[in-house]
Amino acid sequence: MASINLENVQKAFGKVVAVDQLNLKINEGEFFTFLGPSGCGKTTTLRMIAGFYYPSKGVVRFGEKDMTRVPPEKRNTGMVFQNYALFPHMTVFENVAFGLKVRKVASSEIKKRVKEVLEKVRLEKFSDRQVSQLSGGQQQRVALARALVIEPEILLLDEPLSNLDAKLRDEMRTEILQLQRDYHITTIYVTHDQAEALSMSDRIAVFNFGVCHQVGTPSEIYNEPANDFVASFIGEINFIPMKIEKTDKQTIEVSILDGSKRLHVNHTPFNYREPKANEDVVLSIRPESIKLSPNRFDSVNALEGKLELIQFFGSMIEVLVNVNGLMLKVNMLNSNDLSHLQKGTNVWINLPEESIRIIPKISGEIK
Ligand SMILES: Nc1ncnc2c1ncn2[C@@H]1O[C@H](COP(=O)(O)OP(=O)(O)OP(=O)(O)O)[C@@H](O)[C@H]1O
């Protein structure tokens, strides 16, 4: 087991900077996820940790040890690739044993270790089967067994479930977490699937365009997003463009850009600095945090709007409210008292102070 430290790491391919100014500390035994859209630099970062790429700048350490230019075979990392990268005409046993043979482990020891790991991934009966004759989920387990059998200090998983159907993905998620706990191994998991990241990880790093925007626990990332990119990438969210009128240690007073309404919110500093007066910002609030009523709320943060759309999802109801041309999504639990939910009627919404986050505008998508 080892901790991993990336210090000011950059990787450029010619003029393309795939990863820039990356500083990360991944703790021993942690299940750590790189999350972000396609092309954001997740795989490149993973490959720098595996040693398949060397950084253009910066340092990679395992614990205190400088690994920046150590070749992959000397790193003691196990990697599982998106396409599994198994040898199709070899048996399950031969695939899993391969890394041990390369390391010149004695054949009796190889037999013992391969048997143990195949039991762990529930493939002991498939030892002599060719991998081309296995299902996707079984092949994925062979890939996991092959990575684990060398007893790596670090397990690197690059979108390992993306080729599986939804049900199998759910099952494999649980299996991977169980294996990670059993082996208590420092694990990095790459995905673009936010649900996967939120449900599996101890901590998550959110990437976009080669930059890491936030590192935090799933609840920190969901409840305290660092900026509008992170907020919009993780879960559903409403954004309202705002200007900061006043700010002090306790509260921030913001106004909707046309000046029609001022709101009060709890002061929470931006990730790296304090918000400033006159700054254009984004008010963000999750759909489940907005309260809705046919009557006016006794609150400064109440807004009047019109019900535009009501969608029933059994236990939950999703509503769109038009507030002066701005569409806000409200998610409510299904309750008996729904008589006021008529399309076209006027309603009031309340944005509770404690659920609002004022965040910097960085993505340029919100005008
Ligand atoms: N070998 C390479 N040569 C040139 N450019 C590369 C190379 N590898 C990656 N890139 C570029 O670097 C950027 C980051 O790529 P990377 O594969 O790390 O993204 P990713 O987040 O893993 O995406 P995906 O989820 O699609 O795999 C992209 O713009 C990509 O085109």
From TrEMBL:
GO cellular component, one term: ATP-binding cassette (ABC) transporter complex
Catalytic activity: ATP + H2O + polyamine-[polyamine-binding protein]Side 1 = ADP + phosphate + polyamineSide 2 + [polyamine-binding protein]Side 1
Source species, domain of life: Bacteria
Keywords associated with the record: ATP-binding, Cell membrane, Membrane, Nucleotide-binding, Translocase, Transport
Any one Pfam family match given in the protein's UniProt record, by short name: TOBE_2
Molecular function terms from GO: ABC-type polyamine transporter activity; ATP binding; ATP hydrolysis activity
EC numbers on record: 7.6.2.11
Enzyme class: translocase
All copies of domain ABC transporter, residue ranges: 4-234
NCBIfam families per UniProt: potA (TIGR01187)
Family, per entry: Belongs to the ABC transporter superfamily. Spermidine/putrescine importer (TC 3.A.1.11.1) family.
Function comment: Part of the ABC transporter complex PotABCD involved in spermidine/putrescine import. Responsible for energy coupling to the transport system.
Subunit description: The complex is composed of two ATP-binding proteins (PotA), two transmembrane proteins (PotB and PotC) and a solute-binding protein (PotD).
Protein name, entry field: Spermidine/putrescine import ATP-binding protein PotA
Organism: Heyndrickxia sporothermodurans
Lineage: Bacteria, Bacillati, Bacillota, Bacilli, Bacillales
Encoding gene (name): potA
